[in-house]
Amino acid sequence: SIQYLGYKRDSVTMNGTISMSGITRNGSVCAFTLTTTGGNFTLSFDSGSSFVISAYNRTYSIDTGLLPFNLNDNITTISGDTFTGTNREGKSFSVQITSPLVFKGSCTLGGIYYPAQGTHRITVSGKPAFTINWGSGDCDKNISITVGNQTYNFILP
């Protein structure tokens, strides 16, 4: 576990505990779970606003491939429960991974730091829920965002 008590970086102060558990290694794959423990994890900003994580539970699987020091065949997959909290405007939110997020080393080498595939469903109090679809595995920066029955396509910078 890592406990942050008044840790300040630039204009943000962190308070809370993140725990790592279920650490396993099988061949080239290392897996673990990160969770918030012991209450909220809070990011307080010098402006007076804060971002509060009330629950976080994500499982990470990192496959270093055949050549561990060559990112080209690395794949990181993230799955897990709904991540909940309160945003800087005081609105409650939830972020649910509905299909595991996949980050590819080959994309990273090409300067693309977004997931290559997977989906999130995001809900913010008082706003319509929406889904972000990161794609089908290509390193192309194309995403789609669906709100209700309407889908919008974007190319990320």
Low-confidence stretches: none
Biggest pleated-sheet summary:
6 strands, antiparallel, barrel
Total of DSSP H or I helical runs spanning 4+ residues: 1
How many strand elements? 12
Query: Which sequence of strands runs across the widest sheet?
Result: 3-4-7-8-6-5
Backbone structural class: mainly beta
Overall spatial form:
globular
Along the chain, the helix and strand elements come as: EEEEEEEEHEEEE
Helix content: under 10%
Q: Indicate the proportion of strand residues.
A: over 45%
Q: Round the mean pLDDT to the nearest integer and report it.
A: 95
Indicate the radius of gyration in whole angstroms.
17 Å
Roughly how many Å apart are the termini?
35 Å
Task: Describe how the helices and strands are arranged.
Layout: E1 2-9, E2 12-26, E3 29-45, E4 50-55, E5 57-63, E6 75-80, E7 83-86, E8 92-104, H1 105-109, E9 117-124, E10 130-136, E11 142-147, E12 150-155
Antiparallel strand pairs: 1-2, 2-3, 3-4, 3-5, 4-7, 5-6, 6-8, 7-8, 8-9, 9-10, 10-11, 11-12
